[in-house]
Amino acid sequence: MELFKKPNIDFIGLRWYPIGLSIAVVAIGLGAIVFKGFNYSIEFTGGTMLQVSFPQDSAVGVNDVRKALAGQHLDVEVQSIEAPRPTYMLREKSHESDQAVDSFADKTMDLLKAAFPKTAPTLDRKNVIGPVVGRDLRRRTLWAIFWSLFGIVVYVAYRFENPIWGIAGVIALFHDVIGVAGIFSLLHLQVDLLIVTALLTIAGYSISDTIVIFDRMREKLHTERGLPLDVLINQSMNETLSRTVITVLTVQIVCVVLLFFGGPVLRNFALAMVVGNIFGTYSSIGVAAPLVFEYQTRIAGKKTSADKAEKAAATAVPVPPQSRKNRRR
User: Fold this and answer.
1) 26 Cβ partners below 8 Å, 6+ apart?
2) Interior CA angle at 161 toward 149 and 166, to 5°?
3) pTM score of the predicted model
4) Could you tell me the domains of the chain?
5) Contact criterion met (CB below 8 Å) for 5 and 270
6) For residues 38 and 130, what is the distance between their CA atoms, to the nearest angstrom?
7) Distance CA 139, CA 124 (A)
8) 8-state DSSP, 15
9) How do 190-191 and 39-40 pair as beta strands?
10) pLDDT per residue over 6-42, tens digit each?
């Protein structure tokens, strides 16, 4: 299916616009991460977990519990649990002392009993997750991201027989991940293991899109050796443009539906996917391939159409002006 009929967009000629935008995205994202940091969830910081249950004939739902605790200066995650009666897990981070844990449990139960006086809940259990567990998960997460990116560099460098292709792909991935992470930092949205999953998914999707373009470029390098590099890359991106747009639209439809109708648990994950898909698509087109072009022309000495035009003009034989006699004839 072809969404565009023979597009002829000069991506290489316009390359500095997306590259400049990408530099701004990375700078803002890194600045937000460094100066504002992240709003880590309980998996990373440690905290308190309460399990509360309502009477079996109660019609209290998870959204009712969230509304009862909203606006009470409690940063609580609410999750339903499969049980014979309505049971919910309430998690709140950053409680290190027993007094703080007891205070949180008492305040939460008082709010729930006041909100549902006819079906008052009971506290089934109370657990404390120490900060050591949070630090261990954070370390494992960072290592997972590092080894994922390293594996991508090795794979792309091996497949395309040139490390610069892998480096360009990972720079585009770095832009995508930092862009999404920066938005979460700026908006103070909670970062949990589900968001880490979204970041790794975005990285995999982005590099897949980049490899499609790179594969077409490699094919043309073997079959159309006489083409200038900028023409070759432009043709490769234009020929894969319909596939890229159709793929991202298909994914985005699902992510947008999750964003608006998936509920609070999936909202941040869906937001990360929506933003990451946008970043990943334009970085594959506007960042990865132009970086390969810059390296090949500035360092590897590949010729462009402008270079060939200048060479042709310099080697052209000048035509002597006609004599007056010939002009009269």
Assistant:
1) 174, 175, 178, 179
2) 25
3) 0.78
4) 16-39+133-306 (1.20.1640.10), 47-129 (3.30.70.3400)
5) no
6) 19
7) 32
8) T
9) parallel
10) 788 888 888 899 899 999 999 999 999 999 998 888 7
